[in-house]
Queue: 3 jobs
Job 1
Amino acid sequence: MLAATRRFAKSWVALVLIGLLIVSFAIFGINDVFRATPSDSVVSVGSRNISAAEFRQTFENARRNAEERFGQPISTEFAAQNGLDRQVVDDLVQKSVFGEIMHRLGIRPSGKLVAEEIRKIPAFFDPITGAFDRKAYEQALQGVGATPAQFEAERVDGIAQQHFGSAIASGFTAPRAYAALTVLQALEERDAAFFVVTGDSVPRPPPPTEAQLAAFMKENAAQLTRPEYRVLTLVRFSPDAVDAAGPISEDEIKARFDYRKDTMSQPETRSLVQIPVKDAATAQTVAQRLTKGEAPEAIAKSIGVEPVIYEDKPKTAVADRKVADAAFQLAEGQVSGAIQGDLGLAVVKVGKVTPGRTPTLDEARAVIEAELRQEAAAKAVYEKSEVYEQAHTSGANLAEAAQKAGVPARTLPAVSKQGLDEKNQPVEGVSQQMLEVAFDLPEGGESDLQDAGNGEYYAVRVEKVIKAAMPPLEEIRGPLTQAWMQREVRNALQAKAETLAARLKKGESLEAVAASAGGSPLQRAVGLNRRTAGQSSQIPPQILERIFSARPGETFTATGQGLAVAIGKLEAVRAPQLSEAAQFTEGVRQQVAPGLFEDMIASLDRAARGKLKPKVEYGRARQALGLDPAETPAGAQGAGQ
């Protein structure tokens, strides 16, 4: 299959079809190709529709980011089980809702501003010239499955939301009364007393019976069931595994150097400042002030403009071509007169000038040799994969075809779809893409040759399928018995704590109840406040949480560390001194402002959703991922948010 596709891609028929496709994009525009139709929408908000394909790509990007973050393969099923599909859908809803609201409010950045913002993104710069490069831009987007039209539309929304948020945030101040209430709560003092009972204070339960263990095992079936494993044989065609250490002729090196010399050269760079001016008279004044050494920022501010500053940039990085031509004719430290650029009049002062440089053949030799060896390795990989493909399509099995191609076929230990072995350790040499292919095959099935990217190919055979199953009881009897015993102790301990708390509620003293409990001595905490309580390691966080959530005089229980439960009582609550609270109020006012601002944005989101009534097709979203569409959140199928 792959070989046939390659042969077709090199034929004149394919070239004609590709040419017609390019012409059709030029005539009709590429946007329509990616515009979702309502029947294909996963998210619909006003005039905006997110297609199943766009959702799937966004989900895949999020899944790959999670793989990089956690350093292990994450399958689509596992990610969905942990809510990534719903999280991605909700993020898309939020972006669409805000974008639609901004559009309806008339907050829309100009095309010029969007273009300028995109041209500032370093990922889209040419590594040689340091300037924005359209090809790099398109390749970077292609790498994440996006198109320029989609990215530019997203930037329109992003800039609008950023400007809207900045405008609100710049004038936002938390009310003084709100800050005062926060301070009063933080400095409020509490007195509490408590004691702790541990697992040693309750009778040890007898070992579980077979019936109890079986029931416990059934209760925890979801956690105990082992996933499906598969034993795979893998053949890989990788440039890294090809010996490309043979000699490279001097003629090849020289020819490649002559071809690459321009791109390997370092262009002249300059640091310069450009001040826009309205007329020739202003230009003359600005030039005189620059020549005298006055700060460009001060000059620009005095005439109501912003200076444009370039630090060590090549000529191609200067936005105005005519200004660039003039600036790169000046000497270091020289000030221009009025320059009529494409974007208006300007005056330029040149700072540091770094001359361009072209490397010699000897300087570039190592880089060129590495390029030629890499290309030779890629060619060898391609040729070996062709031999394999031809042998496989002629009837040879994976191992036989690999032998004919001269590459090893390696059988891996049993591996789950998450890339883990039976000891829950990562299996080396497999990617999530390989596992997706392998787990779609039956036992004994072999895949076609797959393109792994970066010049690599692979094929996989399923040698054995080990179905998901509970482990035998005898295999886990020890840890299962221990877990059952701990649960019984925990239950007995909780029952004892509730009994002791009931005695306190009936009026017995803390001292008497603590003395009879066989636990720790009674502890008293006086003057606890929320601001400083966390700095003490003497009281566990679970107990502190109950102390600060209890009402005055309330009896409470709190789970401690390990097999331990605290029983206590909140004895007193005292408001702070007003003079002390006043000292902190203004500082807290600044600290609580970001939280309040986030609450405002969340309220705006809820209001916008209520007005726009977004429609979400969770079933269609899961279907786009190849999952069962019926397994959706309750009431979510086709529901508005």
Job 2
Amino acid sequence: MPLRLLPSTLVDRIAAGEVVERPAAALKEIVENALDAGATRVEIVIDGGGRRLMRVTDDGGGMNAEELALAVERHATSKLDSEDLLAIHTLGFRGEALPSIGAVARLTITSRPKGSDSAHEIRVEGGVKSPVRPAALGFGTRVEVRDLFFATPARLKFLKSERAETAAAVDTVKRLALARPEVGFTLVTDDRAPITWPARARDAAGQRARIADVLGAEAGGNALDVEGVREGARLSGLAGLPTYSKANSLSQYLFVNGRPVRDKVLIGAIRAAYADLLPSDRHPVTALFLDLDPREVDVNVHPAKTEVRFRDAGNIRALIVRTLTDALNAGVPRTASTAADRLAQFARRDFSTDYRPEARPGAYDWTRSWAAPEGLADPRAPGLNEAPARFDFDAPGHSPSGGLGLALAPGADARANAAPAAPEALERPLGAARAQLHETYIIAQTRDGVVVIDQHAAHERIVYEKLKAAMERDGLARQMLLVPLVVELDPSEAARLTERAEALEKLGLVIEPFGPGALLVREVPALLGDADISALVRELAEHAAEWDDALPLERRLLHIAATMACHGSVRAGRRLRVEEMNALLREMEETPNAAQCNHGRPTFVTLALADIERLFARR
């Protein structure tokens, strides 16, 4: 077959296969053009997931008739001042977006430059261009795309449902709106009410306001400010609390010099910063803005401009890890407010019909007929807190209705008044311990609310951070067992753990083989106290196969340390004295990352007094 030049229409359709992968990709190119044209207001209309219609109207600089004709030609751009491809200060370009869209859709561009008394319009349908003609429009540009992929119908079968395509398009607009807080956006789709994001100041406060606008007040309220500089690169934005995480990484919004990207270096650095704070199947919510010299990053390595290449990727990774780590470790422990928010919403429900006993068939009003078992005080009687008392409504023979099966308030250690709160403790972030419930949860009182603490999760984080600090400082102190402990295991598990004996020894756990299927434990980390060493060794053996030998030794040691911390912490079900509870609270306030345990779960929940008062209709 002889060589030949391809027709221009076919060339454009081939280019469209790279640039216009789906409606969201075409929309991204058009909105970026509006932003690069200096728009301060952008209106976007989407119908049929973008396949039937995408219309973008802006108040940017606009184009005259000659520029309109040039805009739909391949490799034409206004975004490059010179031939220096490393000095790009716009949202990027390839010079193929508009002709590629016109090659597979019905494209209409209408524009009027500022200062001109007339507008012009050009149309491209399936790659066929019409002459430029006069039109009516205010200052700015309107780009309308109809019947996407009508000229290449085979591409339609690769599109997802209209709902999925609409969601992708909305996500694209969200990312661009986050990148440019100073621009007002209006988004209209066929499946939801119009959304308007007003223009914000281009500073830290405006950035935070736009993040709250786009991602919601809950995301903004559960995030920390981020600010860091390293070797000319600057990182700013918001990083979500570890306890406010998602099941995927779609809520990670990343920007390089104002350009939305999905970069492996950035995503990997975020993962490393949260490694000790989140389980492997959870992802943090972030909106991070990286600014650096344009010559230090190549933005044209991907047709869709979603990937970049850094000249010094190590410096960027170090900047992100250190800045996020510092932000997450700074200040007093703080956990996500979502649980308290849900309680507040619950408090606003109408109790008048939903919760009256007579409103539900078969419901029993135990408050009218409950009789205190012998030896226990009636909770309705005065003087309840004059002496410690336990009310176990789940205990045999203590059901308020003779076995009705109501789970009300089991196992509460009601000794609040026996431990008056010191005024100075009430001012502390985690307050003063007042009681212990179910021998698992500590109830603390602050000046304006209540804190519920999971004693095991909290102490687990404290022990883990101590193990880490000792490892970094001078190694872990060991405690030699007077009588070595023999632990029976499956032979394969014993062999795997024996292979990792050197790593375990760095953490203070000294083991050696003791015949087939058994290990001898001679020394243990002193920090573990009276932990069940047999149970610890068995759990380590179970998880030894999951330790990734490709990970650096430090990361593998931290995995082991996390397991040790779990076994060396205060267990659920242990009765604590008030002094012990307060000591735990004070230590939490001084411990990095104390708002979540090693598995990413919150260690405490704060309930504002106002929310509690709403529960009882006091507000």
Job 3
Amino acid sequence: MSFKTKTLYLLFICILAFVAYSNHFDNAFHFDDFHTIKDNSSIRSLKNIPLFFKDATTTSTLPFNQAYRPGLTTLNTLDFYLSGEKDPTPFMFHVSIFISYLVLGFLCFLLFSHLLTISLTSRFNDIVSLLFTAFFLVHTANAETINYIIARSDSFSTLMIVLSFIMYLYLPRTRRWHLYFLPSLIGFFVKEPSLMFVPLLLVYKLLFEQQLSVNKFISRKAFRSLKQVLIPLILSILVFVLSRIFTPVHWQGGGTNSLDYLLTQPFVIFHYVMNFILPLNLAVDTDWKPIANYHTDEMFAGILFLALLLIIAVRTSALQKTRPVSFGILWFFLALAPSSSIIPFAEVLNDHRTFFPYIGLFISLACLLRNLIQFSPKLQVGVGKWAMIFISLLVIVLHTYGTYNRNKVWATEESLWKDATVKSPASGRVWMNYGNTLMSGGDYTGALRCYEKTISLNPSYAYGYINIGIAKSQLGDHTNAEINFKKALELEKLVPDCYAFYGQFLVDQGRFSEAVNILQQGLAISPHHVKMLALSDQAKAMVTASGSTSNDKIKVLLESIQQSATAEKYLDLSLAYYNNLQYQECIASANSALLMKPDYDLAYNNICAAYNKLLQWDKAIEAAEKGLKINPNNELLKGNLAVALSAKNK
């Protein structure tokens, strides 16, 4: 096939990919996009880029998620700058990611073409390479990565890995000084699995340069190939150690039990392969859990499936014409190793993790199809030829249609999480995020039901309590709203949103001094959190503005009481002292009100609230109980009593 013809085909494939993704450019931010992009003040200035490489806290506003990925934060910063917007909007991010996706597609064509050519001389190599380039670019499962903006860490690091291969294969001069390794090294700073290029290159050298089958990988010839990649391997280890040094101590992968996680992965990998073949079970979040019983059918089925794939990899490595099949399967396993082995993650599976591994399956299938056509004359002419063309085009069209429709699911938070509630009904996080979409639309009652389901599925999930607090506050139940905000803080003292939304609640209630205190605690954990920075400035301004006002009000009330004292004036003075953080004076004034009006339940409420602030729970409880004997329907007293009882019990 001529260069001009291949260029025209590649141009058509790019147009096809654009058609598949034409409805995704305005899709919303989702999930981790918020703490890494939307709420992250670090990405709002190009001047911060050097800081990213020495301070991993700039990666995210969530301490647990602050991995060392300065390249990823740099990409986000550049896209924000190019957008020209005051606040991050998704469009430019989607444009940038899609362009890099098309570039990756072109590089995959070169990779497919090279592997097919060195394994067998065939006139079908070019057309099969073009076909699988189109298949890769429109494959519906890849929509999980391309739509999810922060998952550019997967797509961009994969681009760097394939670019390293292309430099190694097509630019032999880069081998002497290992310059081909530079793209993968750059990719590492976007996501760590980029370093898997080195073992992949070693497998390539063993299969195609040393002409070894898998069962001869441990041999003297194999050791020769290992020596040839020793420098990139050492560099990989060094940069990985460097990244661990720069990673904050509070970063967490999320998982706990390595063995349970590992034994779950065979069936997870089976799920990944099924989604490659028929991507009908794609979900932004799943309700899969680490395996609890080591004798389940799923575990044994997964292990048998992995064994079958490994047997195929060994058998196909024996012949030159089938070695790309073996290479593709080994690529799949090696690319999955960082997330599907002994390192436990919070989620046992994520459908966007397969972006890099799936390239191996494309390689294997491309070789199988080429061999099928090459050694089946009936498929080269007549009915067989047209049947093969029809089936190939049908698969491409169906995946294009599937991707277009999957983009619709990713269009908004509501559509995405509603889809997830159907596919992952046992996930508390899914219900919480769907509740968020209902709340943003004003359906606070519906949102509250979702949050309560979240807590029933995961009683220790801080975000569930945060959102219950927000919903109850909007419904006017401020007492229980505050109880839930405090519950969230009790569960997760390192989650910035616990402070941000409690701070917002306090600002809305006019409790600015308390808001400043809470927000400062949150900013000590996450200094780049946009919401807390804005709220803190607002609360400080209000404290400054109201400080003199409070003192003036106290002075006026004292003068008024000297002229004619009443229980109501003492109550107002008590409240003024409370707002000015003078809690002992608040209690004294409320007691003065009780001397004049012994059945004044509101005075007991002020006493209870002030003792709560002084952490004197027994005195707060005593005051509340006295007040409720006078007026059992006093909701303020009930709320302050609940706070005191809860704090005392803890």
